[in-house]
Design goal:
This protein is α/β, with parallel strands linked by helices and 167 residues long. Helix content is 35%, strand content 19%. α2 runs parallel beside α5. The longest helix is centred in the N-terminal third of the chain and has 17 residues.
């Protein structure tokens, strides 16, 4: 009789666990499937990047610094690809972690980027965003859907083109 009672109690416990919350909630993080952490960069004009977009457009969020040649080149290539293929589908936003504003401004000018798509975080590697997005292992980019969910990370311009053709 003890065995029957144990099996019945264990079955009831497992059923209770399985009938837990009906809706799983997305967690904030930096991997595909996670909600992208919010970004608000303070400066002369407080800049905010809104990922949740009722028009259904995506956001390509790119991180870079002038001192990192690879991230700087990728920033230019991705910006060009979005302008060529993603107009109306993807909003391009790029965050620089250069600590000097003059370097940031001159780099944006020299690279012939649209300044309205480029943001500057003066805190550099001390920035909360640098930590939240896991940039200590290298600068990255993230494609974020209209609900704020990361759908892809570390895109090359060619991979971005493939995804843009599907959306």
């Amino acid at each position: 009789m003890n065995v029957k009672a144990f099996v019945l109690a264990a079955s009831a416990a497992l059923l209770g666990i399985a009938a837990g919350p009906k809706e799983a909630k997305l967690t904030e993080g930096m991997n595909p499937g996670d909600l992208a952490p919010r970004i608000e960069i303070q400066g002369n004009d407080a800049a905010k990047i809104h990922f949740q977009n009722p028009q259904g457009t995506y956001t390509l969020l790119n991180f870079w610094a002038a001192y990192d040649a690879e991230s700087r080149i990728r920033n230019i290539l991705l910006w060009n690809k979005v302008n060529k293929l993603g107009a109306g589908k993807v909003a391009f936003r790029s965050v620089s972690f250069d600590t000097k504003e003059s370097i940031f401004i001159e780099t944006v000018r020299a690279d012939r980027l649209d300044a309205s798509t480029q943001l500057w975080d003066s805190r550099g590697v001390e920035s909360d965003y640098y930590r939240e997005y896991g940039l200590d292992k290298g600068f990255k980019n993230f494609l974020i859907d209209s609900k704020g969910v990361i759908v892809a990370a570390n895109l090359t311009p060619d991979r971005l083109a493939e995804i843009l053709k599907k959306i």
